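Exercise (ungraded).
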Amino acid sequence: MTYFRNIDDELEKALQESLSENSWEGSTEQMWQNIKKHLQQQVQPWSKKIRTLALTAAVVLALTLAVWNLDPNQELPIEEKQTYQTNQPTVSIPGETRPIRKGILLKHADLKVALIKLTNSEIYLEIFIHADSDLTIDDTILIQVRASEHSETTVFTINLPEMSGLSLSSGDSASFKVSFPRPSQSGLYDAEVKIRYMVKNDNYEITGGDIYFNNAR
Amino acid sequence: MTVDEKQLIRAARQGDQAAMELIFKIYVDKAVYLAFLITKDWTTAEDVVQDAFIRAFRNLKSFKEGRPFKPWFTKIVVNQAKSNIKKTRHFVTLTNIETANISQKSMDELAIERDERRILLQAVHSLKETHRIPILLKYFSGLTEAEVSTVLDLPVSTVKSRLYEARQKLKDILEKSGEDC
């Protein structure tokens, strides 16, 4: 045999030409349908996983509620509807040497309270509210003052007619000043401010402040 | 890779089934025949290629865009074929292939079957897997030696030496066959 001297060329030619002899009688269409079916099945395990995760989460939630003896359909108390962070960065006021904590409402508004002045008879606060939703402020401000060294708790209810019905659009801010009587007893006190407001005919309450002051007499 | 093929692969990566179907149609025939040349069985070759396409489409995200698709896909086909051979141990001997082919041929075709091309192909079939697959990838699939080395996970020098050895073996077989004639 002399024709295989250039085996590279002959091999290439022979193997390339052999393709025309491809006697595969299978159906490409059938094979494609099989492949398509497999590729579509590929999606299912993920959807199954998601369903399983959702089911597991529901079971865990139900068990948690059962342990806490809560009815899943029960409305949470108004205070718990609000999501606010405590232990926020503190601000010290020179002279007063008492930190002011900022309460931040994540849901509808951001409430900040600053201690402005402490006189012999009054405590003055400035309250800042920044609306994250369209809301209407009630006229009643509640200031709850707790003594940390004894169990005395005093709640001051302050009406601010100028704030009544004040509507804030999302992104708007408002500030106002309030004062309340200084406690008669010496000691450390914590003042917490609550403001009521309405969003779409629903009543809410935002809590902020947590101002600590030394009532030295 | 042509620009069109790049676009096709990009679309297929995003889950476009029409693009996947086009890629399938471009490569299926040659892939089945390559799988047949490796496994020596049409049914196994079909299974191999079907699985190879499923694997390729599922792993298309790991395919580096801009690189040639053919060697990447060929590697999947070859690995799948080798794995099927190991699994089934279903070898069809050279004699079986000859007999199967002869039974379907006319007398005229039987005469043609004596030609050089047929003898060469039969010689390729008779090579061991380590020599046959590099030969098929280079001369049938048209891959470069570098691409063959990527497909087989072998150094280029090994691919070159295997190709050389394979060609030498083919020459020996063909010379012997010539003497017999």
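Further reading is listed at the end of the chapter. For now, observe: The longest helix of chain A spans residues 43-67. The interface with chain B takes residues 1, 3-4, 7-8, 10-19, 22-26, 28, 31-32, 34-36, 38-39, 42 of chain A (CB under 8 Å).
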